[in-house]
Amino acid sequence: MSVERALWEHDATGLAGLVRKGEISPQELVDAAIARAEATRPDINAIAEPLYEAARTRAKTIDRKLPLAGVPFALKDLGIAMKGVPTHGGSRIPAFVADFDSVMTERHLAAGLVPIATSTSPEHGLRLMTESAAFGITRNPWNTAHTSGGSSGGAAALVAAGVVPVAHASDGGGSIRVPAACTGLVGLKTSRGRVPLTPLVSESWYGLVIDHAVSRSVRDSALLLDLTHGPDPLSPYAAPTPKGTFAAAAVRDPGKLKLAVYRKSPLGLPISIETLAALDTAIALAREGGHTIEEIDLPYIDRDFIADFARTVAAAVAGTIRGEVLRVGRSISGDIERTTRVMSAFGEVLSAGEIYASLQRLHATSRRLIIETARYDAVLMPVIAHPPLACGAMDPKGADAFLEEMLDRLRLARLLKFKPLFGQLMDKSLWFTHWPAIQNVSGQPSIALPVHVTDAGLPLGIQAAGRPGDEETLLSLAAQMEKISGWLTRRAPLQVPGMKAGRFHLT
Asked: Count of CB atoms within 10 A of residue 90's CB?
């Protein structure tokens, strides 16, 4: 088997097995991944910083006995640090170059992973499509006219295009699950406190943000979590200790589970027929696995809940921009995008009391959600309300004028006098995806599963949300559904060997 074919056919666990057996060397794997990265780069535009020479050097000395020895990997260009590597955060602001490794980076390297690049992100992770003034449009390997999602869209594009089998990703409002749903991948949003963000930060967005990965297979997500989870002394909190290993959970029969289905939009916005079909596909797979299904409503997960989430994020963005101004030592208003300026402006006009009240309401609703859904092993719900959007679809004609109007009005008055304007911003920002923020607020784990491909040939995943700290049940369920469905054998057209690189449309 050629190294190029192995990179295409195997997941990370499989590639590491080939390295341990001596069938492929780490150097060969890394060289193949770099060649693949360059071959697909014009089509998907998913690389922020190439790390090719450092990767080749690391591959020469890797211990082949490590769990993921020699497996090519990518780090997201946001929220994680690797010594000497510029982090742009998807922005034109001068890059941050760390003189340390994040704990997660240390654990990635200790596992034997070899980072070959950093992956693209929208500016500060604020959009669920990976498009930025700094790096341009990141495209979906299933159809390059469509988005790979965001904010971990670069990570998802690299995995779906067969460049790397697994990639670091982060999720503050769906940024792992949305790209996974758009590109036919597995995307696990872990429980709050499961993995550390230190020492770069103690927490991000008031604890909404978590780090993990997008992967081709459930077992890769489970193994990587085994190798990276657990607090360090700087972590502000920790998730409950698992009963066993996550890898063991991913090969264990889940037994007969009690599942719920939530199919309404918290925002009251339209949901496509394709999304509901994807949800029905997941339900059918679960029933085939022997599980019971019950339809439920969550009436308290509504527009007010999402509005409190949006206010919290706006305040966090305002604080981030203040921190960047201090780091750079000058005004950065000319460096940041209009959407970022609007979010920051909203955050600046909110009082500390308003933010605290929003957080308290979010916590109260989370407690109710956790208590009322505790009788279910998992709750199935959509991730995205529509199939992967055409690139640029979140920037419709007139959006610039709308954002400029917001900025002008925000300069003159407080936000609470413009609640209708805030609602318009929320609807324009979140009409593509209504659900993922729920678990970021509650801290529950949730896994995006690639259950469906539309008639147009675009992936459309759904998610299963679990009890706090119970990734093991989710991984067992996901692995069973993966086996029943056969989705592990699906490949994006751009990943098929011999397909000419370039823009293409599926028929």
From this structure: 31
* In the predicted structure, residue 309 carries a pLDDT above the cut 60: yes
- Which carries the bigger pLDDT value, residue 469 or residue 5? 469
151 is catalytic: yes
Q: Which of 91, 119, 121, 175 is catalytic?
A: 175
**Residue 505: what pLDDT?**
28
Give 420-450 pLDDT, tens digit per residue.
Answer: 666 777 777 889 999 999 999 999 999 999 9
Beta-strand relationship, 446-449 and 186-189: antiparallel
The pLDDT value recorded for residue 346 is 86
Angle at 215 between CA 504 and CA 453, to 5 degrees: 45
Contact in structure between 51 and 85 (CB atoms under 8 Å): yes
A 10 A CB-CB count for 290 gives 12
Q: Identity (one letter) of the amino acid at 10?
A: H
Distance CA 238, CA 362 (A): 20
Taking a C-beta distance cutoff of 8 angstroms, is the pair 24, 64 a contact?
no
H-helix segments, 143-298: 153-160, 177-183, 218-228, 246-249, 273-288
User: Kindly report the CA angle at 451 between 449 and 456, in degrees rounded to 5?
Assistant: 125
pLDDT score at 492:
93
What the block records as the tokens of 491 is 């490949």
Q: Of these residues, 76, 102, 358, 442, which one is catalytic?
A: 76
Distance CA(236)–CA(193), nearest Å, equals 8
Which of 121, 148, 151, 358 is flagged as catalytic? Answer: 151
- What six digits make up the tokens of 126? 């604020």
> Is 60 among the catalytic positions?
no
pLDDT digits (tens, 9 = 90+) for 314-326: 999 999 999 999 9
Higher pLDDT, 491 or 142: 142
Give catalytic status of residue 258 as yes or no: no
Q: Please tell me the distance from the alpha carbon of residue 315 to that of residue 107, in angstroms, as a whole number.
A: 31
